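seq as requested:
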Amino acid sequence: MSKKLWSLITVLLVVAMFATACGTPAAAPTQAPAPQQPAATAAPAATTAPAPAALTIPDIVAGKFNVAVVLVGFHADGGWSQAHTEGAQWLTTQDSSIAVAYLDTINPGPDAESAMRSLARKGFDLIIGTTFEYGPTMDSLSQEFPKVNWLHVSGYRNNGKNYGNLFGAIEDMKYLAGMVGGARAKADGNTKIGYVAPWPLPEVIRLGNAFMIGVKTTCPECTMEVRWINTWYDPDKEKQAAQSLLDAGVDVVLIGSDTPGPLVAAANGGKWAFTYDYINSCKPAADKCLGTPYWNWGPAYLDIIKQIRAGTWKPGNDFRDASSGIVGFYGFMPGQTPQPGVPKDVIPLVQAKLADMVAGKFTFQDVFKGPIKDNTGKVIIPDGKTLTVEDLFGIDAATIKSSNITDRQPCTICMNWLADGIQGTIPAMPSQ
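struct tokens:
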């Protein structure tokens, strides 16, 4: 597995312990739990980490189920890491016997290994790693600490004993965003869309593809330029990439990185953007935000914790579709109102498609159901065919062999292609 390059300094920020009044644990959610809703009056999330501090490992709280969340970015980044932080904090509002701590801005590699090993030695019951690059570290440590439960978000490794992975079909929500983005571009008479893409990895590629496939349903003539920034979290670089797209004449910017910085750039240029990851990430420029494909981690975490405590957790490959409630599209979920920039005529179309997703009638496999062509005109997914989870993750035979994976089949339509309408090619991963 390739490891990403990181420039951030390891930082420990606040260790949060949250508790509610004593009571019985909340029941595990089943279908489509209500979206996690931070206070609407909350201040916009910060997008720049404070000055570094010495790394200190938090202590456990005696008598509680202790959860440690290891974040690759700043806990208040307005995106990916903040969604995990608030999802974990939500746990304590549901069950007073759960205690939560987090470490943020932890680089993959030696920094992550040191931090996670220290957490395991402290006696944390569950350690959650929140970036793909933590995979090899968590794989190794789960063997070293067999009494600790390990949950890897966005990975594909597991040992079937105390180490599993978790992810969800956010491509469903990117598809809906594409429907809105295409309608907005068509209404503006400017069919150029842009994508701030973090890394040339299958996850990033498939989400851009899902968005573009959605765009084509409302704007067949639309095209999309890509700016590869080779980082998940770099507010300045994210804004610069968005500005480059705006300078190229795009009307709508899709964000694939961790902060809402590109939204601010788009708004300053009088254009539109979709934020990502965090339900409140439209706040910095709400009038120019068309919506947010976001993660709802709390109910999924609680479900897994209840299984662990009951002794029924079978760690494996846990990939949840929209019907589980793990993902949402801000502006269209229950209790939400479409953003003001969303064209009126596309609203019922998106609402109908979302209803099918929540009901399990339209899944990630329907998003990628053929016939689908790549941007060279080649038919990638034949008529009537669709993709597997292994295809989405780009898990090929070489990856299975090198990672000693025994419960996956190699991808046959691996996610190494760009959908029709996306301009350019996929670059190579940067050298380490």
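The radius of gyration is 21 Å.
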